[in-house]
Write a structure and sequence with these properties.
This protein is mainly α. The protein contains twelve helices and no strands. The radius of gyration is 24 Å and the shape is globular.
Length: 283
């Protein structure tokens, strides 16, 4: 190529339109818009299946009305100056969030079977935005459960904190818990790939997560081996934060800072893992 041809080529390249530089704020804003779009799409399903929220509220209601009332009268579980029903209520809220979220991943398997998941994967939406959007939609269901449990607790005379900052903290912890366990559910769905295997694994891990936490008994009476497991269980930190924020005289045993830190880190790790595994559902 002669010098004259090289110069002409440079002139042609210079005349091409230049792509605008990506603004980091625009990139971040676009990511969150896509995330909220996915969350809004998932949340629409609640309007078409509102009875699901009511049926899922039956179990926590029974725990509070039967289990809570009986053990409050028997005083067989030492909870200090806190009545057992008050002690139990935050644990049942955490249990409800767990049960609502842990089977959320089956929706992904249904989407794959219906061909909807393929459309998500070929869209320009980043994988983390897809996962985060689904996790946020699961938190909407969890918040509805929180409202139901709050109402029941008020009827039963549980001494709840009226501090608006505490209530906001309860909502945030509920959202973080739902995001983590729903993303964990998505990870299981990505690995199991069939509804039968997914339901089996979900049922296997749900009750151990619940009973190895501090949801229905304090950590002070746990044997040493159970205490180690409880410290590794994210549900323990969710319950501890809810107990400190939800009750009028609530106290955090582990520290609110640690509770929030553990849940936030757990959510970030779970979303990062599922963002890599998400396309495997269709394989």
């Amino acid at each position: 190529m002669t010098l004259q041809e090289q110069g002409a080529r440079r002139d042609d390249l210079a005349s091409l339109p230049q792509l605008p530089a990506l603004n980091p704020l625009q990139t971040i804003g676009g990511f969150f818009r896509k995330t909220l779009a996915v969350a809004e799409l998932e949340a629409r399903k609640i309007r078409h299946d509102s009875t699901d929220l009511v049926t899922r509220a039956v179990q926590p209601v029974l725990w509070l009305l039967v289990f809570g009332q009986v053990f409050t009268q028997s005083r067989s579980i030492p909870t200090g100056n806190t009545p057992y029903l008050d002690f139990l209520t935050p644990g049942i809220l955490a249990q409800s969030v767990l049960f609502v979220s842990i089977f959320y991943g089956i929706a992904v398997i249904w989407e794959r079977d219906l061909g909807i998941l393929h459309k998500f994967l070929v869209s320009p939406t980043p994988r983390p935005a897809l996962v985060l959007g689904k996790a946020l939609s699961a938190s909407i269901r969890a918040l509805s459960q929180a409202l139901i449990i709050y109402l029941i607790a008020l009827v039963l005379g549980v001494k709840l904190s009226a501090n608006p900052f505490h209530i906001a903290g309860v909502l945030l912890i509920t959202i973080l818990g739902a995001m983590f366990f729903s993303t964990l559910s998505l990870i299981i769905a990505s690995l199991m790939k069939t509804r039968e295997r997914f339901m089996g694994i979900g049922q296997v891990i749900t009750m151990p997560l619940f009973f190895t936490s501090n949801a229905i008994y304090p950590m002070a009476i746990m044997p040493a081996w159970l205490l180690v497991i409880a410290r590794l269980n994210p549900l323990t930190y969710e319950v501890d934060a809810l107990r400190a924020l939800m009750l009028a005289n609530g106290v955090s045993v582990l520290g609110l800072g640690l509770d929030f830190a553990v849940l936030i880190v757990a959510v970030i790790i779970a979303i990062t893992i599922e963002s890599r595994l998400y396309p495997r559902v269709v394989q």
